[in-house]
Amino acid sequence: MCPKPMTNDTRERVADTPEPMIVSLDGDLDLRRADRVRADLLQAIDSGDPVRIELRDATGADVAFVQVLLAAVRAAARRGRPLDIAGLDGGPFPTLFAALGLIRSGEDIERFLIDYTRDEASA
């Protein structure tokens, strides 16, 4: 499935609360979808609201998606915006991050992203 455009279907807000904007991504997250996913994520980050990227329904991913995800992490860190990513501990992500040399097999992607965010925020 293609990423859903940033509409009320993928944006969930509760009036007068600091609930995050949720960007749900499913299916294969690959080069064919990279530009659209990048635009959706940057739009969400630029909204000023906290953002949660939901990846639990992703069935595949490639290096292009990892680049898009890291660009979103970098953008949020540099703008001082809260960003939460759910679903990285399953699906294709642990194997992909390990194959790319970002983590060792069995290591936690969350720990990698915390370190990455800290490094980006101080850059």
Give a quick rundown of the structure.
The protein is of the alpha/beta class and 123 residues long. It has one domain (21-121): STAS domain (Transcription Regulator spoIIAA), CATH 3.30.750.
Descriptive overview:
By secondary structure, this protein is an alpha/beta fold. The protein has a single domain, classed as Transcription Regulator spoIIAA. The chain is built from 4 helices and 3 strands, in the order E-H-E-H-E-H-H. A 3-stranded parallel β-sheet has the order 1-2-3, covered by helices on one side. Helix 1 packs parallel to helix 2 (about 65-80) and helix 2 crosses helix 4 (about 110-120). The longest helix has 17 residues, at about 65-80. The protein is globular, with a radius of gyration of 14 Å. The protein starts with 20 loop residues before the first strand and ends with a helix.
Which features does this protein show?
4 helices; 3 strands; disordered N terminus; alpha/beta; single chain; Transcription Regulator spoIIAA; globular
CATH homologous superfamily title: STAS domain
In percent terms, what proportion of residues is strand? 15-25%
Q: What is the number of helices? A: 4
Total count of domains: 1
For the record, give the distance between the C-alpha atoms at the N and C termini, rounded to a whole number.
36 Å
Order of helices and strands: EHEHEHH
Main sheet properties: 3 strands, parallel
CATH-assigned fold name: Transcription Regulator spoIIAA
Oligomerization status of the protein chains: single chain
Determine the fraction of residues in helical runs and give it as a percent range.
40-55%
Low-confidence region ranges:
1-15
The CATH class is Alpha Beta
Shape: globular
Total beta strand runs: 3
